[in-house]
Amino acid sequence: MNFSDVLKALNQASAFELYRMRAAIDRLLDEPRWVQAIHARLQIGLAIEYFDSQANTLRRGKVLELRRKQAVILDQNDGRRWLIAYAAINLDGTDVQIREQPRQGLGRNEVAIGDAVGFVDRNQQQRSGRIIRLNDKTVTLLCGQQQWRVAYAYLHRVMDTDTIEQNVLELECVMTFSGN
């Protein structure tokens, strides 16, 4: 499904039309056929991925309990238990990125909490940091010890150098020769 086209169409709808659409989608997701189809593929202890709509990213967890309409998941990152709708569980490994085509910068659906991004501040200084919160029109970034609120249009991707540095393995090779 091309989410960029869907988002374009939805952006032309009124708030009332969007509300009606959300109600219709909620009713569809509550239909027993969807719930049963997902429930049948789950089992206690299964490692899964689920979509966190607040952070706009996939998270990993383990199924602890199967309820009628939701599953209790132990989140791998924070160790907390979450009650997750079956529809949020990504059993087929679907790509969750919604790629918008904004004029400049990054779109709201193209970033997630924890992403490394950069921007140019008012003094034309290049800054980069990690996203710690997604707001409606801005993101909150942690740049060193300082927090910045930056509009999505001013963001660009940066290479995550911290991760690269953490994955470098230094090896020391010692060769010993014995004279025979």
Which descriptors apply to this entry?
180 residues, alpha+beta, SH3 type barrels, 2 domains, five-stranded antiparallel beta sheet, four-stranded antiparallel beta sheet, 31% strand
Describe the overall structure:
With about 180 residues, the protein is α+β, with helices and mostly antiparallel strands. The chain has 2 domains: about 5-90, SH3 type barrels (Roll), CATH 2.30.30; about 110-160, SH3 type barrels (Roll), CATH 2.30.30. It has 4 helices and 9 strands. The protein has helices spanning about 5-10, 15-30, 30-40, 160-165; strands at about 45-50, 55-65, 70-75, 80-85, 115-120, 125-135, 140-145, 145-150, 155. The strands form 2 sheets. Strands 8-7-6-5-9 form a 5-stranded antiparallel sheet, with no helix packed on it. It has a 4-stranded antiparallel sheet with strand order 1-2-3-4, with no helix packed on it. The longest helix has 15 residues, at about 15-30. The chain is globular and about 55 Å long. It starts with a helix and ends in a 14-residue tail after the last helix. About 10% of the residues are buried.
